[in-house]
């Protein structure tokens, strides 16, 4: 199936080395009401420099799964893609209960939300004509920002079922945000199973910081993908632990895993300081860390190039296919 990239249709075979979870622009819901915002021209230019840098390192595509309520800016993504030559795939979907899901959507039923998701995939986001290439879902809290341990809330479940129905209508994949300290990978799959979703189209994201083999085995044995997509965020989990899990899984034959950083180019509205600690404690949290440090470390640990190619290139292609 052709993929909707921010700059038009593309074939899954042309994705190449893909970072499956990165962000060009993010803002907490309400940022757009803040008169203080980024210098757009400047931020586009510096994002282009960063994208050209990873292109030099072999990255051909990134997925920016920013949900519609978290500072998503598809025109920003398209401009950066156009000027840098890196493909960018943007998402539809809503964020978690604690931080996102505006009231308008809370008042809708599952099919109403699904209709909007499908519209963004088939017709485009707003009046931009830029189509979403995948659907984001989210559950759980964020350590240090919101309470944790609430399970999948009813509002989150409604958005998951809407994502499942929009997926069945359009065929695009689903990407799940989880809280590493209370992840809901298997419960999310239970909901998707009830909605008849093909698990080959589901990535259980933010899995690398979980560090629990039982969790990984269950998700993989059910046929979904694992996102090891926060390399560099040392404040959540050390890269050493991520590597231990990854090398262990590869060693016993599990390779349905995709890599990324969940790195962030710019923050919308004024800086509210939430990410300061995370940034300070994570000096390698950037778009090139996997290419520069993680892949060489995997090779040094004996992971063959063919397996690295599976993680970085073949898996994203098969997830979107
Ligand atoms: Zn993210």
Provide an overview of this structure.
The chain has 321 residues and is an alpha/beta fold. The protein has helices spanning 40-56, 74-84, 103-106, 110-122, 154-170, 185-194, 213-221, 239-251, 276-280, 289-300, 305-320; strands at 3-5, 8-10, 18-19, 23-26, 61-64, 87-93, 134-138, 174-177, 202-204, 225-228, 257-259, 264-267. The protein has one domain (3-320): Alpha-Beta Barrel (TIM Barrel), CATH 3.20.20. α2 (74-84) links the parallel β5 and β6. α1 crosses α2 and α4 packs across α5 (154-170). The chain is globular, with a radius of gyration of 18 Å. Residues 21, 23, 262 line the site of zinc ion.
The parts where pLDDT drops under 50 for at least 5 residues are: none
* Order of helix and strand elements from N to C terminus: EEEEHEHEHHEHEHEHEHEEHHH
N- to C-terminal distance: 5 Å
CATH level-3 fold name = TIM Barrel
Strand content: 5-15%
Strands side by side in the biggest sheet: 3-5-6-7-8-9-10-11
Strand count, sense and closure of the main sheet? 8 strands, parallel
CATH fourth-tier homologous superfamily: Metal-dependent hydrolases
Shape: globular
CATH class: Alpha Beta
Quaternary: single chain
Mean pLDDT level: 95
**What ligands can be seen in this structure?**
zinc ion
At CATH level 2, the architecture is Alpha-Beta Barrel
The total count of helices amounts to 11
Number of domains: 1
Helix content: 25-40%
> How does the helix and strand content classify structurally?
alpha/beta
